[in-house]
């Protein structure tokens, strides 16, 4: 019997794969036998066994070179996990145009650039491994939750959600699936940095955990498991989907007692 979750031998590229959710994805895909390249502006933390490619997703040429290198190294590219992203705090009045441009350049255009350069490779791969060729974006519950003090970040992720759906429609007949995951608050170095800035980090961590119906933060490995599923042939019929990995935050409208 063949295992529909089998991703052994797939060529994969994970952006932002040197930390947090991306590193968890790179580790899991590697453990399951995929060949994994990590594209990151700082590849110091790229997991063992991965091909580290230092590039900034705001640099179109650097992205193209990194994508082409991964495809050449692996003899093809089947899986793209576009995960690199940065945060921004404040209301619409708090961030100036420069900050808006920069966050959108990383969080939205970064994913556009990666897709643009990966698509020719993915089209070739689709003939080789039907059902196993995909792009997965790391979006966020911020895309639809109406989070306070996150106007710019939420707008960037709302755009990623719309981009995911439009790309899914454009490429479905080419055999390329496009989905996103929407993590709740995940326990990554990013959240660690945010907590370090809080007046009372322990109280802030408890408040973030309490916001999720499960009463705890999501682990990066839990997000990685969802992404590995979306990359696998088990998800061959899944495209244009936003998979929430958020401890029930999005789905449970009535908070459990
Ligand atoms: P993280 O800061 O731990 O890791 C992000 C990685 O992206 C880092 O390795 C960083 O070097 C890289 N990166 C950032 N900007 C880059 C650029 N311009 N070019 C190349 N690489 C770049 O963050 P994380 O928490 O693992 O977040 C990963 C993704 O998950 C982001 O897209 C984020 O928006 C999303 N997300 C995170 C959470 C959370 O609670 N942690 C929740 C929802 C969504």
TrEMBL record:
Keyword match Oxidoreductase: yes
Record-given protein name: SDR family oxidoreductase
PANTHER family with a match to the protein in the record: DIHYDROANTICAPSIN 7-DEHYDROGENASE
Alphabetized PROSITE patterns for the sequence: ADH_SHORT
Organism in which the protein naturally occurs: Streptomyces yaizuensis
Record key words, sorted: Oxidoreductase
Family per similarity comment: Belongs to the short-chain dehydrogenases/reductases (SDR) family.
Annotated Gene3D superfamilies: NAD(P)-binding Rossmann-like Domain
UniProt lineage: Bacteria, Bacillati, Actinomycetota, Actinomycetes, Kitasatosporales
Domain of life: Bacteria
UniProt KW Cell inner membrane keyword: no
InterPro entries: NAD(P)-bd_dom_sf, Sc_DH/Rdtase_CS, SDR_DHRS6-like, SDR_fam
